# Entry
Amino acid sequence: MLSKKATCKSHGQDSSYFLGWQEYEKNPFNEDRNPLGIIQMGLAENQLSFDLLESWLARNPDATMFGSNGGSIFKELALFQDYHGLQTFKTELVEFMAEIRRNKVRFDPQKLVLTAGATSANETLMFCLAEPGEAFLIPTPYYPGFDRDLKWRTGVKIVPIHCSSLNGFRITKAALDEAYDEALKLNLRVKGVFITNPSNPLGTTMNQDEFNHVISFAVSKNIHIVSDEIYAGTVFDSSKFTSIIEAIMDRNLEKTDIWSRIHVVSSLSKDLGLPGFRIGMIYSNNETLIAAATKMSSFGLVSSQTQYLLSKLLGDKKFTRHYIQENQRRLKKRQQVLVSGLQSYGIPCLKSNAGLFCWVDMRNLLSSNAFEAEMELWKKILYEVGLNISPGSSCHCTEPGWFRVCFANMSQETLNLSIHRLQAFVTSNGDGNYQNQKLSTRISRRNSLVVS
Amino acid sequence: MEFSLKNEQQQLLSKMATNDGHGENSPYFDGWKAYDSDPYHPTRNPNGVIQMGLAENQLCFDLIEEWVLNNPEASICTAEGANKFMEVAIYQDYHGLPEFRNAVARFMEKVRGERVKFDPNRIVMSGGATGAHETLAFCLADPEDAFLVPTPYYPGFDRDLRWRTGIQLLPIVCHSSNDFKVTKESMEAAYQKAQEANIRVKGFLLNNPSNPLGTVLDRETLIDIVTFINDKNIHLICDEIYSATVFSQPEFISISEIIEHDVQCNRDLIHLVYSLSKDLGFPGFRVGILYSYNDAVVSCARKMSSFGLVSTQTQHLIASMLSDETFTDKIISTSSERLAARHGLFTRGLAQVGIGTLKSSAGLYFWMDLRRLLRESTFEAEMELWRIIIHEVKLNVSPGLSFHCSEPGWFRVCFANMDDESVRVALRRIHKFVLVQGKATEPTTPKSRCGSSKLQLSLSFRRLDERVMGSHMMSPHSPMASPLVRAT
# Structure
């Protein structure tokens, strides 16, 4: 009756990543109304800097689309459906992107395609770069949404590049080669490498070695590099972030073939914390790709009303400069609260310098070194401790025991509470060896809530 | 050099990225390109091309703008609305804001005269109707499967339904001899043809009110269609994007009414596409709606809506606007009056020079009959005529060929996307052109069955102008039924 796409599970929503969200929806924490509810730590949102946006709005009534002309802008915007996008918006957007990259890279608005979020950008790129059945190599662990965004309707396959905690989950040449060989064994034609930089879920930025490996690999195999840089504005220390475009330029490869095989994806959902507005983008030097992707963007354009608002916001350079710095400062501070809080109870985090989350090492809390044990632990943390965190298996991590924990989508008080809850859970398990003691866990949870 | 570069790109990128599936090489878009390079402006470019190929509704912006000014809290950027900013900006749930879904469901009910109810939980967002169509194709069919679609049809369907999905569109050929109505015979014929070619038919795509015809389907035809799809167990996708552009009799009957009141059918086969781009004139806001009676389709389409959600800033505005029922009542009725007036102005103006149009009661356009101006009854002749209209008469109208019309000589002409002055200029140009053409191809007997009389060559331009200027003052509720206008 329905298509294969409609009846298969490639939408990926049966993953624990999304199941945790569903449990949270059934019993969401609220300081006053539901203090025993589940705290959402599985949603990588940035809620730390809304006051800055709100005060900008209060100072800039023109963004309402009326200004002093009394209505003419509204009509123009309401009718504006040109898939090339509002030029003023694209101009401001590329300048904002450059600012985030310390102006080491300049972007041309003509090479930018606007899409309904990075979700749509990533899918569109797959439609443009690969045939159904062809593959992209992606380093693990990776954002669970990629299983849907890159594969579901496009028919493209993902082959993982396995990264290990032994070297901080960095991409190695061996891992790239191994992934390529695996694709060959599966009879899959590899069309490209898909990197997320800064990484979700790791929160790390790619280093020069990794760039060397990925770029040499893509050059030698004659394949694409897609770089999802959606978290670029969440880097605590800007000097440590290098965009793929900068990396290519640093290696003097702009005049070679690889230049037209580099494609950047971004969005304003993480940097500015505006996921509801659906502002995504594809940037590429490949004109044919840009032409095709622009036409495809018809299936998911950005509302002209939103383009207009953002063109005003991003056009205020004093504001954007201040926002970028202050936002980074707050993210860094918040990350440190989580890291030190967990550290003090023997739970280490991967050293990170970006993102809205930490990659937390809970291997010591597993009953065994197995994914079943990871799921057991995850369920305990979800239902008994009352925290929705994302298990590493949902991110295709090859080693059990790692969890992504978000810290920027809640108030300071709620973060403190979640740390207390986790600390209580860890403490109740003695020296860190997890015992199946439901009773003591329940008592300790009650205690932790009383304390808070 | 150019060939090898293109070849290289074709290997570097997917077939989808380098083929013509985007449909933009169709003549539908050539006219737009001519317009873009020489757009009419009353003072800056009075000899430019007037855009009559874009089905936009610009007739009620005064009312809309007044509402927006009086309701600042509908914008999250005003002092009154800013307290909602954060809540709206972080909301990315693909169910959509509940108030948005409720308001849209209410509006859809109102447009159908409260004759049916819509469940807000079946409302799924999409990137415009464009996104809704593609999503439905992904949900209902596999690559190589087909949807049947009556001709003539909106050219965008070729891209929206086929490009990235791999499905096919097979025509149900309709003819001017019965005003392009869909018949049981034509549906069966199309279905049989598919069977013989070993093509699996998964759905039937209907556009009601019709683009480009501007007609609404009568109850009997709708019942026949529902019966047909039910018997064949194929899906019915009903695009009702023009549902609130109805301006005269006969009234619009929605498929939702048919399945509710007129005929039993498997509701799992019924899906609606809607948008605010035509009824309200908001194409820039990308408010696409997919409504399905099939739970599995709602669930799947909702997940797919992640690829084209409506900006929450826009959801918030639309929720406020459409829940103001005094406003929605006013806009629906005023829009209808103004569309009737505009439609009447053009069709009467054309009738005066012997140009027939298909009798229609909806849409932002009419279907113009220029068959007797063709050198011969071929599509080559239609293209020749069309190029003259674009480059010499300077009007961008859309040739029937681009709508897959089976008969040459028909053109879609949009009338709601311009101001009154442009309307007058357009009519003057048409009159002038027809008078000149008339001298070259003066018929001795009417060739078409529409009963158009001989051209009135003796009319002077000035007198034509007066008629045109005067006619729009007539009551929109009693358009003069000229014998020259095609009767149904």
Observations:
- The domain at 7-61+332-438 of chain B is CATH 3.90.1150.10 (Aspartate Aminotransferase, domain 1).
- Chain B has two domains: 7-61+332-438, 74-329.
